Amino acid sequence: MHSYQDENHKIVYSYDSSVVNIKRIYPNKIVFAENKNELVKIVKNANRCDMPLYIRGAGTSVAGSSVPFESGSVISLEKMNGIIDLDEQGKMVTVEPGVTVISLNNFLKKYKLQLPAFPASYKFSTIGGNISTRASGLDAVKYGTIENYVKRLKVITGKGEDLSLGFKTKRYSMGIDLKNLYFGSLGLLGIIYEITLSLVPLENKIYKYEYYADNIKEIIKLIRQIKNKGIIPIKMEIMDNRITKLLLNKNEYY
């Protein structure tokens, strides 16, 4: 475990990717936890000192969720970035919260598997942060959101308790599924330190098509026709005529 109290670290870790005008307070210190035992120790010490904790992944959030708003400590999970276990036959993987989507999928390529939850920041956002902010990206049109793939979470509560929520199985139906409380919880309910994810086969080929039309109604009609044929695209994007005028000098819709 490493902690820093110098001004440079305090400045950097009082910001994330948010552009909203929020009040920013420099943290007392930034702590880089490396395992579960260190997290328990940090939380229990903070309780004794009545000190707020702010949980941080990669700081890609545009909602200001990891920005301190009063004096306290930032806990960075970026050093907890290990891939713990891969169940190739069961198509599940267990990781630490600091693993990025791109690093996990690069690891999974040789097994022809993938985690199909790609937020716009997938090259550097962490999986723990994506769960805490419910970040899933445009591919959710076909694959669903990040919560569709989380099977088990291990968390440290605000009292320093160690909880295991969910099961390392594809399906289960018994009891209340408390892990769902952590999707979009922004670190308020505890610190996620281990995640078990369901995986899907890697696409063999991805085809990209581009269409243009004179008006937006034709594009919307085309989208409906594609879906009515039973084709579920990975993602679809519309470029209006304002953009095409600027980029292509054309008055068309794509």
Give a verbal description of the structure:
With 254 residues, this protein is α+β, with helices and mostly antiparallel strands. It is 23% helix and 19% strand. It is built from 7 helices and 11 strands. It has helices at residues 7-12, 36-49, 101-108, 127-133, 140-143, 216-228, 241-247, and strands at residues 2-4, 29-32, 53-56, 73-76, 83-87, 92-95, 113-114, 150-156, 162-166, 191-198, 200-201. The strands form 3 sheets. It has a 5-stranded antiparallel beta sheet. A hairpin with a 4-residue loop joins strand 5 (83-87) and strand 6 (92-95). The longest helix has 14 residues, at 36-49. The protein is globular. The N and C termini lie far apart (51 Å). The mean pLDDT is 91.
Strand fraction: 15-25%
- Average residue pLDDT: 91
Q: Please give the alpha-carbon distance between the first and last residues.
A: 51 Å
Number of helices: 7
Helix residue percentage = 10-25%
Radius of gyration: 21 Å
| Spans where pLDDT lies below 50 across 5 or more residues | none
- Shape summary: globular
Order of helices and strands: EHEHEEEEHEHHEEEEHH
Brief digest:
It is built from seven helices and eleven strands. By secondary structure, the protein is an alpha+beta fold.
Key attributes of the depicted protein:
254 residues; 7 helices; five-stranded antiparallel sheet; alpha+beta; four-stranded mixed sheet
